Amino acid sequence: MSQKMDANAAMAVEASQRRATGLWQSAVAAICARMHLIRYAGFAGLAICINLLSQNAVLALLQDFWFGIYLAIAFGNGAGLIFKYIADKYWVFDDGDASLVSSSRKFALYFAFGVGTTLLFWGVELAFHYIFQSVLMTNVGAVIGLCVGYVIKYNLDKHITFRGGSGNLHTGLSGVSA
User: Fold this and answer.
1) What 3-state DSSP class applies to 54?
2) Mutual angle of helices 35-62 and 68-87, in 10-degree steps
3) Are residues 112 and 26 in the same domain?
4) Are residues 147 and 91 in the same domain?
5) 148 lies in a domain?
6) Whole-model pTM?
7) In this predicted model, what pLDDT tens digit does every residue of 79-118 receive, in sequence order?
8) 3-state SS, one letter per residue, for 83-132
9) C-alpha 161: how far from its chain's center?
10) Contact in structure between 72 and 32 (CB atoms under 8 Å)
11) For the segment 17-69, what is each residue's pLDDT rounded down to a tens digit?
12) Are 82 and 50 in contact (CB under 8 A)?
């Protein structure tokens, strides 16, 4: 009887280990399937840092001028845009197409979609700037505006700008794999 209980216990332990292994494999598979999204979020975080550091550097120089905030926002946007386009093209959407025509078309789309999300970001940042009148709250507004803008921008870039990337991550607007 003791041998039968030992065998049952061993089978239960083995079944538990299989379930744990299956759960681990499922978790790893889910993370791998979303790796482009994880990379996008990471690069968006870096772009936000680049944007805010650039803005604050310009504001430090031009804080006494009425146009300082506007120039700072524009400069921060330019710095973030260049970094984010390169990161998205090569490391998020795995777009290895280096032809001048295709890259120019993609950058134009990327830029055009960025205009809309940038207006949203600027609106939130300026609202915080004028309502709270502090650098901290201006930065809080910038982060909120950038995060909302990046969520919208991710979907536009995934479905339209980089839909033909070699990483096979993308689905066209019609739902058919590109």
Assistant:
1) helix
2) 150
3) no
4) yes
5) yes
6) 0.69
7) 999 999 999 999 999 898 889 999 999 999 999 999 999 8
8) HHHHHHHHHHCCCCCCCHHHHHHHHHHHHHHHHHHHHHHHHHHHHHHHHH
9) 14
10) no
11) 677 677 777 777 777 778 888 899 999 999 989 999 999 999 999 988 889 98
12) no
Tokens 């079944």, residue located: 15
Residue 177 bridge partners (DSSP) = 171
Give the tokens for residue 71. Answer: 């120039």
Whether residue 16 lies inside any domain: the answer is yes
Question: Which tokens in the block code for residue 154?
Answer: 């991710």
Residues 29 and 79 in one domain: no
Range of the domain at 25: 1-33
Which residue shows structure tokens 């805010």? 52
Residue 161, Cβ neighbours under 10 Å: how many? 26
CB-CB contact of 47 with 84 (8 Å): yes
CA atoms within 13 A on the CB side of 35: 11
